[in-house]
Write a structure and sequence with these properties.
alpha+beta; Sulfite Reductase Hemoprotein, domain 2; 3 domains; 5-stranded antiparallel beta sheet; globular; disordered N terminus; binds iron/sulfur cluster; heme; EC 1.14.13.83; precorrin-3B synthase activity
Length: 439
């Protein structure tokens, strides 16, 4: 396998096996096995390969992809060979997301798998040049539907077929059409061709949804399923079985920990693993007794397995523990937020802790971002890691700054109020002042 010269790699490209991305701890490869269900042996192989060819740090991303870190130009081809030898085929082409339990969840409106597969084939056959980070969601509904996943193009299952919309999550995406089953691929390809016509960097937000809707005719169907998507962490009843959602703390784990988890879960009855959004692993195969043992096993290995885990709404990058670009220990900072400002972590807002302004863990805006900069750890409100911080502090002052933010929240939040509502009604200057402390 040929790895492109590193100076051709850029932040905007997807760091696949054929185009790994340079980060502070070497090369990063992001991959999604094409098979939705993984066996224990697959995960054990991935752990071995991460240890052998990288620095052993494995991440599950917010979209449910795997990231292997600390690779080198020499080791990436060996990783590719190891994956091929194990029969683990990474998905290629445009990222098309479907709910992680598609095809096995009796409560889904329709299995999204065939539509996603047909769309993937149609896009490949069209040979269009599309933005490298283009994301398409095909959401057939069900317990773990993808309503909260932002996409350039969405297909949501509705009574009359598929609702086609662009540029957003299920509620915010702008509607284009409702397509019957036999028109869904051709109709979606019309929108993808319109995107390609706008240029190789065009995203769903750049499309003129009203003009596209006029081509298709009037759209009257409202967004399906008004309810928020369920978080995959914890136990889910899927038909007659119970599926356990497990998360590595803050989305990161060492290969040895993953191997220990998988072996422990197999001993409890685990038979199948699925990657899922929100940095999750879904595990099937447990009986009632085995489920309780599996939860205990996951907790023992340091994984989260209840939907009350407070750190689940924090996104962190590798930080000083795994990346030379990091200016502070992002894990320690996340633990400090859990301890000192846990009220921020009710799931209503995103909190992002980034070792440097590159913002690998959470490219989108977050309500609160702590970011390592030359001037110290910066506080960015409602922005990205690369935005100018409202204030910056020396790293050693960060724990007390976090405690002051927690104190402000506890003192001024109304009973039952969410962190989001509190932040929305609070002047940014008050949050900045709490972060900075007495001047
Ligand atoms: S955001 Fe984090 S992982 Fe990415 S380069 Fe910066 S310090 Fe490294």
């Amino acid at each position: 396998m040929t790895v492109p010269a590193l100076d051709t790699l850029r932040r905007g490209a997807c760091p696949s096996l054929s185009a790994p991305m340079r980060t502070g701890d070497g090369l990063l490869v992001r991959l999604r096995p094409a098979a939705p269900a993984l066996a224990a042996e697959d995960l054990l192989t991935l752990a071995d390969l991460a240890r052998e060819h990288g620095n052993g740090l494995i991440e599950i991303t917010a979209r449910g992809n795997l990231q292997l870190r600390g690779l080198t130009e020499a080791s990436v081809p060996r990783l590719a060979e190891g994956l091929a030898a194990a029969g683990i085929v990474p998905q290629t082409g445009v990222a098309i997301e479907i709910p992680p339990l598609s095809g096995i969840d009796p409560s889904e409106t329709v299995d999204a798998t065939p539509v996603a597969d047909a769309l993937r084939k149609a896009i490949a056959a069209a040979s269009l040049i599309l933005a490298p980070k283009l994301a398409i969601v095909v959401d057939g509904g069900g317990v773990l539907s993808l309503g909260d996943m932002v996409a350039d193009i969405r297909l949501d299952a509705v009574a009359a077929g598929w609702r086609l919309s662009v540029g957003g999550d299920r509620q915010a995406a702008r509607p284009v059409a409702v397509l019957a089953e036999d028109r869904v691929i051709a109709g979606t390809m019309t929108v993808i061709a319109a995107l390609a016509a706008l240029g190789p960097a065009a995203r769903g937000r750049d499309l003129d949804a009203a003009a596209l809707a006029a081509e298709f005719g009037v759209v009257s169907e409202p967004p399906p399923f008004a309810a928020l998507s369920r978080h995959p962490l914890g136990i889910h009843r899927i038909g007659g079985e119970r599926v356990l959602g497990i998360a590595p703390a803050y989305g990161q784990m060492q290969a040895d920990k993953l191997a220990a988890l998988v072996k422990g879960l197999v001993a409890c009855g685990a038979s199948e693993f699925r990657l899922a959004p929100h940095r999750m692993l879904l595990v099937r195969g447990f009986s009632g007794e085995g489920l309780a043992e599996a939860e205990a096993c996951a907790s023992l290995e340091g994984f989260w397995c209840t939907d009350t885990a407070p750190g689940r709404s924090i996104s962190i990058c590798a930080g000083a523990a795994g990346c030379a670009s990091a200016r502070f220990d992002t894990h320690a900072a996340a633990d400090a937020v859990v301890r000192g400002a846990g009220e921020l972590l009710d799931g209503s807002v995103d909190v992002h802790i980034s070792g440097c302004p590159k913002g690998c863990a959470h490219p989108a805006r977050a309500a609160v971002t702590l970011c390592g900069t030359a001037a110290g750890v910066g506080l960015v409100l409602d922005g990205r890691a690369g935005d100018a911080p409202a204030a910056a502090l020396p790293v050693e002052d960060l724990p007390s700054a976090i405690r002051r933010l927690g104190t402000l929240l506890r003192a001024q939040r109304k009973e039952g109020e969410t962190a989001k509502s509190f932040i929305d009604r609070t002047a940014p200057a008050a949050l900045v002042s709490a972060y900075q402390g007495p001047q």
